[in-house]
Amino acid sequence: MQVNVSHIHFAQSLLPQLMGDPGNMSRTVYSEGGYQYFREFEPNDPEQAAGYANPHDTYWARGKEEVGEGCPRAIMAKNGTFKLVYRPQGVSELYDLKEDKRELNNVYDDPKYQNVQQEMQMDLLKFMIRTADVTPVHEDPRGLPKKKTMA
């Protein structure tokens, strides 16, 4: 199946793996998210607030964390062996997935993993450089903003 896109994207299809191919187990998966500033979080948004009001809701604990401390920006790289979650503000995480499949032992500052940590952080930097500030494929039909004149 061919999907036509009208934007730049960096994803790779998982369709071959879904159809039974083994895939490339050495490739890295990236993810980014969180809020840079607390004002980006919308505590008055009924959809977000609903999950934070009910202790039995799946996202209740996460919601309490966001309301209290916020959800700092983070970027993640995960391969078949390690997972790195880097937070410029906040606690970063590194997990040895062969030794710790459940990601319970954060080895981010462990000297034994210093080389892995540095390699993965460099990989994240390269990912950000490759994927940041991409030129649009098509010109926005709305054009540039009009200049306002001073009265």
Question: What does this entry look like structurally?
Answer:
With 151 residues, the chain is an alpha+beta fold. Helix content is 26%, strand content 13%. The protein has four helices and four strands; from the N terminus they run H-E-H-H-E-E-E-H. Strands 1-2-3-4 form a four-stranded antiparallel β-sheet, covered by helices on one side. A hairpin with a 3-residue loop joins strand 2 and strand 3 (82-86). Helix 2 (46-53) crosses helix 3 (60-69). The N and C termini lie far apart (57 Å).
Show the helix and strand layout.
Elements: H1 15-18, E1 29-33, H2 46-53, H3 60-69, E2 74-78, E3 82-86, E4 93-96, H4 114-131
Using only C-alpha atoms, the radius of gyration works out to 20 Å
Q: What share of residues is helical?
A: 25-40%
Beta-strand level of the residues, as a percent range? 5-15%
The overall average pLDDT, rounded, is 78
**Element order, helices and strands?**
HEHHEEEH
Form type: extended
Could you give the order of strands across the largest sheet? 1-2-3-4
Number of contiguous helices? 4
Assign the structural class, choosing from mainly alpha, mainly beta, alpha/beta, alpha+beta, or little secondary structure: alpha+beta
C-alpha end-to-end distance? 57 Å
Main pleated sheet:
4 strands, antiparallel
Outline the low-pLDDT stretches: none
Number of strands: 4
